Amino acid sequence: MEFLAVDTETNGRAGDLCELTEVGWVLVGGGELHDQGTSLVRVERPLSRGIQRFTGITQAMVDDAPPPEEVLPAVAERLRRRVLVAHNASFDRRVLKQAFERAGIDWPDPPVLCTVAMGRRFAPLARQRKLALLAESLGIQVDETHRALPDAVTCARIFCALFPKLCANAASLGDALRLLGPRRRPAANPQRRIPREQRPDLSKLPDDPGVYVFRNEAGQPLYVGKSVAVKSRARAHFCQPGEWTGHAEVVDYLPTNSELGALVLENRLIKEWKPTGNRALKRTDRWVYLVCRLDIPFPVLEVAGEPAAGRAVNIGPVKGRAGCQELADQLTSLFGLRHCGRKLTLREHPSLYGQMGRCVSPCLGDLDPNAYRRRLDEALGMFDGSDGPERLLARMDAEMQAAAAERRYERAAVLRDRRERIADLLGRLGGLVRAVHAGSRALLAKHPVKAEWDLFWVAGGRVVEWGPLAERLPTLVADAERVAAAPTPPVVKPEGVHEVRIVSSWLAGDEAWECEVAPGADVAAWVEQVTGAGAGLQAAA
Questions:
Q1: Top-level class of domain 3-180
Q2: Among the CATH numbers 3.40.1440.10, 3.40.630.30, 3.40.50.620, 3.30.465.60, which is that of 196-273?
Q3: What is the pTM assigned to this prediction?
Q4: C-alpha angle 395/401/407, rounded to 5°?
Q5: Comparing C-alpha atoms, which of 156, 166, 150, 170 is closest to residue 82?
Q6: What SS3 state is found at 66?
Q7: For residue range 218-230, what is the model confidence (pLDDT) as tens digits?
């Protein structure tokens, strides 16, 4: 037999969002290494800074790389009539199979051997089975890691080192596959892969951002999805078929110029059509919110994964629940708000926080709700604009100086420590901590490749109007004046919660261009600065 040691690098995302960024291979035969090769692969979604630092593969490198349709046929040809060898082979096999499916290329489905399983069985004294550590335990020198070709070479050398022991325990390839096969039991009812000739025609779908809709024979929507490359993403559904894929007869699409446009449109169509294949609009971020629901006399600050519906103030999004909870605790103590839950239990004596002066003790039953509300409004007012964190720290500086001037040095020391802690928290939380309802904004979201943009008008965290920038240039100035003069909706309806989260998480987590829209704001100059659309803006003005 001949073996092909393969390693893949990805964009670091999980599940369907995982994309191949680099593939490397080494041909092994007769216990020796022969031909080798590698190629970068163009991706749909931008690479995060973390994965660029981890692998050394930059955004510019994958932008200049060939698309999967050009890289994968050569990989498929090398895999035919050979055994695929990889370290943690189930991962590399899944990445490659998903990439083949998206590119519309038949997966050769070679037999697979895993060097992790070989190390577990034939090198039991190796405590760590990560690629570099296992290689070093076998006396193999490793000079470079986390790139496809060097890792494929290391994998091939591990395979050659353990190959004699494999031959001693397995007389044939079938014996080797059974010996090193997964210990997990197969699924009781594995879903059958739908043959290509039985799938809907996907050839007319574009490789651009947008929303795609799978429909049954009667035209009813079965599934609504979104992607920055509609054709590739739609193909991936047939790699791991769902309950609805066997009933899909046709697929259509609605194009957008940006990923944010696709996210907003997908959310609205799912809410309107309720397709059977969309179980729910799943969360795809790690953001949480500091929320204050105003439906009780003495509201409290809480941490939630979604913005609160109804009359509420939502601050964030904030990355990390622990940091957000600590910020809520610090604000609650600073402004003397309730530390207990939403249900208020009357007491005869102040709670522990009340005795320490960190709560105004509404649980005693003698506090005017309006007095408590003034404190709450003061705390929440710190996040009414983009400069909220700075205003909060400035307020604490003023209180600390006043306490020192009055020779209340213990109070000043407490405020100093709390100020340092809150400043550290705001720094770790990214600094973008503000109420989602604060003001109106204009957002620009760019096409991943082309010089095309979507323009969004946002009020109360929700998109009130949006569309291609080129179509909205003639009415840009009038639209800005109308949005600036419109009142901000005070209530988030339950059906609007997902859209608030989508927009606010996009602003916090991606490279976003935004402009506060207030009376007199020069939105046209901002758009021209960001996009360079000077001629169209002069006509609009």
A1: alpha beta
A2: 3.40.1440.10
A3: 0.64
A4: 140
A5: 156
A6: coil
A7: 889 999 999 888 8
